[in-house]
Amino acid sequence: MTCPTPLTAGISQGIQVDQSPAALIRKAGDAVQIVCSHGEADYRTMLWYLQSPGDSALELIGYVSYGRISYEEPPYEEHFNITDLSGNTAKSGSLFIVGLSESEHSAGIQVDQSPAALIRKAGDAVQIACSHGEADYRTMLWYRQSPGDSALELIGYVSYGRISYEEPPYEEHFNITDLSGNTAKSGSLFIVGLSESEHSAVYYCAARYAH
């Protein structure tokens, strides 16, 4: 599950991700296919999220990497299926939902992120903290959503007791701390040398089940 923190420091850009259909109305028991595609050869992992009605948090359904087996989080294994990515340059994939139920597709864990919002000037340093109480969710991932963009960009991740990893575009200004706690887990995202042109966005923390 993810939780957002908006940070205002200017304007930032991401890649174009297209998803269709834009909206769906289906009855219980139906099957659903949602298609996602983009044109960036180096973006080889596709992640799917669910946002429950009236909730600002995003729940990770699962993900797939190009040429690898997909993975669905335990609450979604029964009714959700993520297809492998296709294409050597442009990438496309699908999320299938079978046996649609109004009551089963919005479960998740409680993830707390603070502060709720930040306004900082260029050159400042920022810390965003994230925590949850689930011992088996041992990986923490951080994402960024650029203004006006529905896509999420992976900043990096850290697993409990292991070294953190930042994606290449974020290595210079971003640092993810190791998870602490044997049961409840906490970690932080640090941004140093804020730039008005790069770092204004909504930042999300996500917890992933150990597998």
From TrEMBL:
InterPro entries, sorted: Ig-like_dom, Ig-like_dom_sf, Ig-like_fold, Ig_V-set, TCR_beta_variable
Span of domain Ig-like: 123-211
Cellular component GO terms, alphabetical: plasma membrane
Keyword field contains Signal: yes
Signal in keyword set: yes
Keywords carried by this UniProt record: Immunity, Signal
GO biological process: cell surface receptor signaling pathway; immune system process
One Pfam family cited in the UniProt record for this chain: V-set
Protein name as catalogued: Ig-like domain-containing protein
Classification lineage: Eukaryota, Metazoa, Chordata, Craniata, Vertebrata
